[in-house]
Amino acid sequence: MVTEDGVRLRTAFWPRLAGRPQRGTVLVFQGRAEFIEKYFETVGELRERGFAVAAFDWRGQGGSDRALADRRRGHVRRFEDFRLDAEAVLRHLAARGDPGPVVGLAHSMGGCIALTGAAEGWLPLDRLVVTSPMLALRLVRRPRLVRATAWTLARLGLRTRFVPGGPACSISTLPFPGNRLCTDPVRYGRNAAVATALGWGAIGAPTVGWLLAAYAAMDRLAAPGMAGRIRMPVLIVAAGADPVCATEATERFAAELRRGTLVVVPGARHEVLMETDALRQVFWEAFDRFLGSGSAEAPAPAPQRASISSTVA
Q1: How many CB atoms are located within 10 Å of the residue 285 CB?
Q2: Mind listing the domains of the chain with CATH numbers?
Q3: Which of 119, 135, 194, 241 has the smallest number of CB atoms closer than 10 Å to its CB?
């Protein structure tokens, strides 16, 4: 499909499985450098629960259009452009007549975008589930220095270059030992194989411009009162051992939600949905509790923080 500014997005749609109850449609908002195929397992689990599913690649990654000739560079001018992607998909869902309610399932960068859209009112979802939202970066140890360096590089005309030291290869194809994404070697290997098969569809490191845009987006979402502006019910599932995004920032944000539920999964790295079966089960139990019968009109859960250490053990 094509966005209002002419960017072509690769999309995919699945109907609910025959014989399952009609529970609505889940729209998947990927994280940075991800692609539709990475969520095939999750799509199957959602369909088993009676949901239709829609997924798409953000501009600048997967099979969608690029702003740069070098398609391996993860680049975007500003995060506000991602709004055009989400709006195009939602318009298409409405035109297709896909069943409601519409539930967002957003990860990392996608979580930052979806939470911003929910706060600003341009993302008309019925409910929102977010994993490891990009609210603050843990992997950047000296953020002020990094931001100043990125700003200087941009002023020197290097906005579209990889961040210093950033590889052209996908993070999904790096060796499993010491990876930041998950503790499950089988799922990690599966994702690495898919990323390799996709070639340029699995992008490398972000550009200097992407990093500056990401900081601006996180600043925007961290502004006083933003979390409180979100009126839809929100479930946030944070990773207890996340080396990418700061879980403590997620906890602070969740505490300010009007209709929020927070679950922290001890031992999980950044990609909760790509974790071991035991850790993923924590997510699915929280997901099923949050959606209840599947009706978005059900009473919203009271704000809470779930403790699931014993479940994981």
Answers
A1: 14
A2: 11-312 (3.40.50.1820)
A3: 241
